[in-house]
Write a structure and sequence with these properties.
CATH architecture: Beta Barrel
Strand order of the largest sheet: 1-3-4-5-6-7-8-9
Number of helices: 5
Helix content: 25-40%
Shape: globular
Strand content: 35-45%
Largest sheet: 8 strands, antiparallel, barrel
Order of helices and strands: HEEEEHEEEEEEEEHHEEEEEHE
Length: 317
């Protein structure tokens, strides 16, 4: 018995060594596969950036959505304002049945039901690229949790309409132009700590303004799903909702820079305060305010004459 046991011990040692060697080999193969996947993803991202081209000349403009169908069924009713320059874009989507909230001047005036209603709003801003007939909107600020790639086929229906079709054909949206394609564009960005904090986009007589929330939303299918899952305090919910996406008219409203649609309802009808932070100097150039600590201001697009700028912004002192 002892002899057999000693023999068994001698036979177990090589077996254990073989098992350990196999496990090490498996780990090496898994690490190699992970490295290959990472390299493949990096290569794909690089190729996507390299393939991105200029937008079709008919896409820049100001658009309103007429309808959306999902698998042939008419979707939710939203009031959409979509402002597009040759690169920058802004989009705000307000449910048609959002409560009027008359008399509210801020979140403190809203009850829990009204706060929940605001969580159904949508909107985003960032940059747009085109590649192989596909238009991609790269979100930098998103009212909802950013869950998927935003890319579609976009085609011209007629002189004033475009059609967006999902890559999997699951939805179709139709948009109508609110104004002739503008030739003048402007985009001003403010970053804080490398994160987009505010952006102003101007296309003709229309503008889009976004102010980011203090922190990005946790991952979720939607803001409502996040609320149901996380059960936030009122203060936490207000912090999630405190993201302004506004669209309006520069001169065509009741007041200059009038906000027409906004994720902050009390801003509608008011003048966009951010426009007052920009000035035009004596040479006709746009003058940006002094950046505070951690901020960086940048004009990323300016296709306007000094005369046009002077009609938009006040003169610098």
């Amino acid at each position: 018995m002892r002899i057999l046991l000693r023999g068994a011990r001698r036979s177990v040692a090589p077996l254990a060594l073989g098992v350990l060697t196999s496990l090490a080999a498996c780990r090496d193969r898994d690490a190699a596969r992970a490295s290959d996947r990472d390299a493949s993803r990096a290569s794909l991202a690089t190729a996507t950036r390299r393939d991105s081209g200029t937008l079709p000349e008919w896409l820049p403009g100001v658009w309103s959505r007429e309808f959306i169908t999902r698998h042939g069924v008419v979707g939710e009713s939203l009031v959409v304002r979509y402002v597009q320059t040759p690169a920058e874009f802004g989009d705000v989507r307000i449910p048609a049945n959002r409560p009027a909230l008359r008399g509210a001047s801020g979140f403190a005036d809203l009850d829990d039901a009204a706060l929940r209603a605001l969580a159904r709003q949508k909107g985003f801003t960032g940059s747009t690229s085109a590649s192989g007939g596909v238009i991609t909107w790269h979100h930098e600020i998103d009212f909802q949790p950013d869950t998927s790639r935003d890319a579609s086929f976009v085609t011209v229906d007629d002189a004033t309409h475009i059609r967006e079709t999902g890559l999997d054909s699951s939805f179709v949206e139709r948009y109508v132009a609110l104004a002739p394609a503008p030739k003048r564009h402007l985009a001003v960005r403010v970053t804080r700590g490398g994160r987009l904090d505010r952006v102003l986009i101007v296309a003709g007589d229309w503008f889009y303004f976004a102010r980011n929330r203090a922190r990005d939303l946790p991952p979720a299918e939607s803001l409502e799903a996040l609320i149901d899952r996380a059960h936030p305090t009122r203060a936490e919910l207000v912090a999630w909702l405190d993201c302004e996406l506004s669209a309006g008219r520069v001169r065509g409203g009741r007041v200059p820079w009038e906000i027409e649609r906004s994720t902050l309802p009390w801003q509608e009808g008011r003048r966009l305060a951010f426009a007052d932070s920009l000035r035009v100097d004596g040479s006709g150039a746009l003058k940006l305010p002094a950046a505070s600590a951690g901020e960086a201001w940048q004009v990323t697009r300016q296709a306007m004459s000094s005369t046009e700028l002077a009609t938009l912004f006040r003169a610098a002192p």
